[in-house]
Amino acid sequence: MESDKIYVLKQxxxxxxxxxxxxxxxxxxxxxxRQLEDEWGxxxxxxxxxxxCPDCGFEYKLKVKLDIAxxxxxxxxxxxxxxxMEMIDVDGINTPVLKKKVSTEDEKYFASVQxxxxxxxxxxxxxxxxxxxxxxAQIFVxxxxxxxxxxxxxxxxxxxxxxxxAEFIDESVSEIRKS
Length: 179
Ligand SMILES: [Zn+2]
Prior knowledge:
This protein is mostly beta strands. Helices cover 9% and strands 42% of the residues.
């Protein structure tokens, strides 16, 4: 939250201020509002509260105490940042159920196949590359979506294979082929 900007959130005006970190402003004159004591003269007795502008007397009825409303505003502004963040899905992280290495006759290439069980169902991963080279290809086959894909950051599958075919249970076919 930047200190030189007023944030309008759910039709209320909020600003970052040195005094109590964040202030709710009167919509008429931008004066920071203060929380009134409730009818028993006790702040903190009921859930909601009334806030009032000390200048013009404008009032808001809030469903929560002003302190909570302030921290809710900060949470909602945080959420906008969080929504843009990369997600690491620990729950969905794959558990290998099968791992198999395949060797070629001339030993120039390597390939390994792994079947992972994830929350989204099984996924087949093929790692392949030229021995002695750091870059390898990663090919993913997902039966649930009947798709074969590869990681574009890595080596291209067609650098290693001339053709890769994935055939799914409904007889649909996905192919990566050297053009
Ligand atoms: Zn006012």
